[in-house]
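Retro notes (design track)

What went well: tokenization of the new backbones is finally stable.
What didn't: we kept losing track of which sequence belonged to which structure.
Fix going forward: every design gets posted as structure first, then sequence, in one message. First example under the new rule, 101 residues:
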């Protein structure tokens, strides 16, 4: 599978690119050490293939490498964090309670 996740500067987002076509993205706001993830989207023609999960995983891995805390306002992103508890350390205790992660 030929997938490239590219980080854009403005607006802050990660793009999911397959064979030179953007098929999805994660949009977020960065405030010092806090990342507020507001939206995740995958082109409907590509839904159900795991691309959104891969996009979320790569974004979370990047946030972890940058020592950021994550506030998953996006419902899809919050569900991904619930499904993969290894990322819970990226949340503050308050966010873990609020988003049930």
């Amino acid at each position: 599978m030929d997938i490239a996740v590219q980080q854009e500067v403005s607006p802050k987002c990660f793009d999911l690119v397959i064979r030179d076509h953007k098929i999805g993205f994660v949009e977020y706001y960065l405030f010092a050490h806090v990342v507020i993830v507001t939206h995740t989207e995958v082109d409907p023609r590509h839904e159900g293939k795991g691309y959104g999960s891969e996009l979320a995983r790569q974004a979370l891995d990047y946030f972890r490498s940058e020592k950021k805390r994550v506030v998953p306002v996006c419902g899809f992103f919050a569900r991904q964090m619930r499904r993969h508890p290894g990322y819970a350390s990226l949340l503050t205790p308050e966010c873990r309670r609020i988003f049930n992660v």
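Added context from the reviewer: Strands lie at 3-8, 13-18, 21-31, 34-42, 69-72.
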